[in-house]
Amino acid sequence: MSTLPPPLPGQPNSGQPNSGQPMMPGPESVQPAEPPLSEASRLINTFVAPSKTFEDLRRNASWWVPWLVGAVFGLGFGIVAAQKIDFVRYAHEQIDKSPKAQQRMEQVPEGQRDQIIRIQATGTKWALYFTPVLSFIFGSILAVILWAVFSFGFGAEIGFGRSMAIVFYAYLPYCIRSALLSASYLMSSDPTSIDFANNPMPTSPAFFLDPQGNKLLYGLASGFDIFAIWVVILLGLGFAKASLNKKPSVNAAVTTMFVLYAIVVLIGAGFRAAFN
Fold first, then answer.
1. Which residue ranges in the chain fall short of pLDDT 70?
2. What is the pLDDT of residue 9?
3. 97/120 Cα distance (integer angstroms)
4. HSE of 155 in the Cβ direction (CA atoms, 13 Å)?
5. Which of 230, 235, 225, 226 is nearest to 257 (CA)?
6. Residue 268 domain-assigned (yes or no)
7. How far apart are CA 267 and CA 272, in angstroms?
8. How many domains does the chain have?
9. Which 8-state DSSP code applies to residue 12?
10. Is position 254 within any domain?
11. Model pTM?
12. Theoretical Cys-Cys bridge with 205: which of 37, 49, 168, 221, CB 3.0 to 4.6 Å?
């Protein structure tokens, strides 16, 4: 029976048990942990490297900072619009744009029409001031729906708090929209002519269409909005990257979000065609 010769000095012992000395890992096996992101880094990375932000939500699922930032931009736009818009005139113009609304208004006694318009104008104005509250309510509802879709549909390990964080971070691009709209109102000679409720900027094909034309086509075209598509992609990426068990894949999550968004757009376009 042959035996291996003892290793020469300076050579590794490849045939004998470990002599008790610890094995040192090679350079390729050293994988330093990613440092945690600050809240400021999360906000910035949402626009330049969103995967980093959503992966960091596995460590800390705090959602109040992106909600607060979005609320500040939304409230800022609301304050500017409330000061620049004649809401009574705006309400009249919205009725004039909708034959169905005109028909409903004709059924109201003439003495009550002005009162109804003033109520609509006041409600629209105060809704702008309550943007932070409304955004929180909307974000919470959306977080519940998407949490259920990805938790039960894909088996993703995402709690409700993490779902809230994904939603509020994904909606940060709307801060840019709010800033652009605020600038538009400040620079416009006729702010009431800017229809903030529909397509006030050329970010979708609907901006170039006649709202009084084909209502279904106008509603579908409104769905191809740059900011809306941006948010849909971020939501899919967020639910894929923030899941603790990395389910679903990015492609599956983004595709799911586009399917859900398409359903919402179709429903909205049908509603617009039927009631406006």
1. 1-33
2. 52
3. 15
4. 4
5. 235
6. yes
7. 9
8. 1
9. -
10. yes
11. 0.85
12. 221
